[in-house]
Structure formats: structure tokens, C-alpha cells
Queue: 2 jobs
Job 1
Amino acid sequence: MSQLKPLIAGNWKMNGNKSLISEFAQEFNSQAINEIDVLICPPSIYVDELAKQVDAHESVLNVGAQNVSEQASGAFTGEISVDMLKEVKASFAIVGHSERRAIFGESPQLVAQKYKQALVNDITPILCTGETEQEREDDKTFDVIAKDINAVVELAGIESFKNGVIAYEPVWAIGTGKSATPEQAQAVHRFIRGHLAKYDAEVAQGVRILYGGSVNENNAAELFKQNDINGALVGGASLVSDKFMTICNNAQSSK
Ligand code: PEP
């Protein structure tokens, strides 16, 4: 892990409830965690509750959403805007998670619009990108990732990565129990930083690049030893407070 402040983000997907939110808000306090940023992205209906519990327990948790609309407001049934997220004190939004891309058909261009919409409204976007197993076998990993990043650069400019986060999430590693090896992850993270550096070397050095895909309490420490891994986006293991705490502690001690 480089000198960038690590970010450990939990993506609860369509899981969790109010009691889990209360448990997390109480356990993740400043005595437990003080040198890294920790974020929980619960289902959107619980974002407000998480923010309230964080206040009530003086928790260090940051509050985020798993998705956000590219539109500001209006006739978009079922969508949630950046203003709504801000009103309930969310400060991060995941955009372009592989499930949104694969199941809900989100294109690199749409994801770039969401990224920009979040960023210009002071919500930190976490841009997810990663290849499928087939794309890896076909040696297309870097092409897929470059395409997702280029869509953001074209719409929002390279400066937009000054205040954004990237999460490398190989699709074949998400929810499968088959994490990328630290070396595989580092190779892609290095590619991402190098690709950004072609546009702006300073921006490339400053952007946090998280790894996501079956991160757990046993494999996190080795992943965090890699130079270009600045934290993790965690699915399944972020639902169990002990496991998530161990991952956070591993990130703290890797600094
Ligand atoms: C995710 O949902 O982004 C994810 C990485 O899930 P898991 O950690 O369960 O693979």
C-alpha cells in the first residue's frame, strides 16, 4: 500500500437491515479505527438510517450509496438523485458496479454520466471496472478497463480523478470466493495508474485504487502489501462486523 490514506468500503448489495446498521455504527468508533477511511454502502433505503446511527454513536463510518442517478430530478421512477443522497448525509456513491453493468445494462457512457453527476455535486464517486473471465482469457483486461476510464475522461476530464476513487473488481472474483492473487491485482492496478499517468502524472499518483473481489479477513493483508492497492471494496465480508473489522485493521497496519 502506498502513502495514500487507505479506504475500506463495504458494499452490502441487497442485504442488511436496521439492526445491522446499528451494530456497525457502534463497533466502528474512533478507538477501533483511526488511520484509514471506512465506508458502508447499504441499500439506499437505509442510507438515512446509517447516517443517523453514525451521528448517534459518533462512529467513524462514512456513508455511501450503491448507485446514483445521472439525472438531477424529475420523471425517473425508482431513481435516487445526488441531492437526495446529500440531504441524508451520504458522501460517496459507487457507480458502475459490475452487477449494474451486467444486469441493468449500464454502459461506460452512462456510468461516466453518473460519475460526473456525483462528483460535481460533492459526492465522491467510486468507479468500478473489471473484466469477465472470458475477457481475461482473451487478453482483453486492459482494454475493458481503459474503455471504462476513457469514458469518464472524455466526459469529465482527467481532473475528475483528483476527487474520485477507482475500484478494480474482476467480475470473475466477485462473490465467487476466488480472489485475484495479490500479483494479479497489482498488475492491473499498476496498469490503471499508468493509464491515468498518460493524461496527468500527478492525478495518477493521487488517486486511490481499491481492489474488490472476494476480499476477506484471510487474504486482505497480502493484497494490502501491494504498492498500488489503496484499499478494498468488500461485498460478502462487509456484512459481518468482525470480518470487516479485521480487514480494516489489516489496512491500518499496512500503512
Ligand atoms: C462487491 O460486491 O463489490 C464484491 C467485491 O463482493 P465480494 O467481496 O463478495 O466478492
Job 2
Amino acid sequence: MDVQIIDIPKITDPRGNLAVIEKDTIPFKMERVYYLFDVPSSSHRGGHAHKELQQLIVALSGSFDVVIDDGINKQIITLNKPDKGLLIPTMIWRELENFSSGALCMVVASHEYKEDDYIRNYDDFVALTRS
Ligand code: TYD
């Protein structure tokens, strides 16, 4: 699976640390940033794949699990560090769950929001990965 964790460059400082995502930090051109907040711990977010969209997911605060699935293999990655990002390429099914209290999930995305880029049915996703 081409999913990978990247280090987000940071400047540590006794006054507080600073992390920065620049255009060369990630392998796609960023077009949009959105974030999930006030997520109940029992919530499941995601539950889809994307045809064109690539994303970098960062736990800015707290923690949550990302279940990723390429149609054959599944793995669970816990994100809990604001200087680590999970890069998700196209055609990966993802679910986000097990949010800690106060968790903040930031997503840097390669495209603007477009509903027709989503695959929201798991069977359709598996069929597409095999075609
Ligand atoms: P969705 O991507 O399904 O959320 P998640 O994957 O985090 O569970 O989006 C939820 C709703 O928000 C859906 O109706 C589409 C809308 N939405 C936008 O309008 N713009 C956006 O940039 C995003 C990410 C979602």
C-alpha cells in the first residue's frame, strides 16, 4: 500500500514548537484544507475512497485511528503527533474512528471538494480496484 507517514518539518523552541507544511513537504499541490473538530468518541468518519484526490491527514491535537484499505489489505494507523502526517494516495478506502476528546483532524487535500470524486459504496470500491 502506498500510504506513508511523513515527518512535517518543525522548529522546536522552548516558547512552543512550530511545524510547517510547504509545497515541497507533500507530493501534490494543495488546493484545500479542512478539519474535523468536536468529534464524539463513538463517531466514524470517512467511509469512502477518492478517484483523484490525495490527502495528508494530521492529528493537530489528540488522537484518532485511520483504518486504510486498498481493497485487499487493511491496516490501522494511529495518528497522535502534530508533526507526523499520513499521506493517502488515490483509491484507498479510509475510515476514521476512536477519536480522543479534543481531537483535531486536519486534512490537506489536492483538489477542491467534488462529490463525484468520491466512491462511497465499498463494493463499488473493491470492484474498481480489481478492474
Ligand atoms: P465527508 O467528506 O463525507 O466527511 P468525512 O469523510 O470527514 O466523514 O463530508 C461530509 C459532508 O461535508 C458532505 O456532505 C460533504 C461536505 N463537505 C463539503 O461541503 N466540503 C468539503 O470540503 C468536505 C470535506 C465535505
